[in-house]
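FOLDING PROBLEM:
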Amino acid sequence: MMDLSCENPSAPMTARRCQLNVGIADYAVGESGTTLVTIGLGSCVAIALHSRRAGVGALAHVLLPHAGLSGGFHSPGKFASTALPVMLRRMRELGVTDDVEARVAGGSSMFPALLAPGTPSLGARNVAAARAACTAHDVAVVAEDVGGGHGRSVYFDVAQGSVLVRSVQHGDVAI
């Protein structure tokens, strides 16, 4: 579930500064004045969608590359293939037309010693699934910070369309 905190919550949305925290297997959509945040990406992937013209953005914290790896309840943010359509639908409800671009972060190989030789890591499969979902919905991936063996957190300023990827081991990267 998303956690919302805003400065001056009684002000109009355009005058507020809000932070929406996006949990694992979840997503959020926000307008200018919102920062969408997800922390603790390892093999998971963050997909940030942005429409500069409408000032609307969305962020998903994708857990798995496909439903076959998961049993039980499936929240839309759990897989890239289900996160993209719901985020795009909500963005269209807020006035987005066709100018959406994506940024992708995460997809680390956190435990490479546990993989059989030649087997792609869960992180690599999550990155591939994120790219495929974007392609399937005609959304260009304009920047990435993916792979490696380190954790990341993502801070997406919807007004600016900027994504800051933070890592203890590798510092900050703007994508």
User: Anything to note?
Assistant: DSSP finds two helices and eleven strands in the chain. The radius of gyration is 16 Å. The mean pLDDT is 89. The helical segments are 80-93, 122-136.
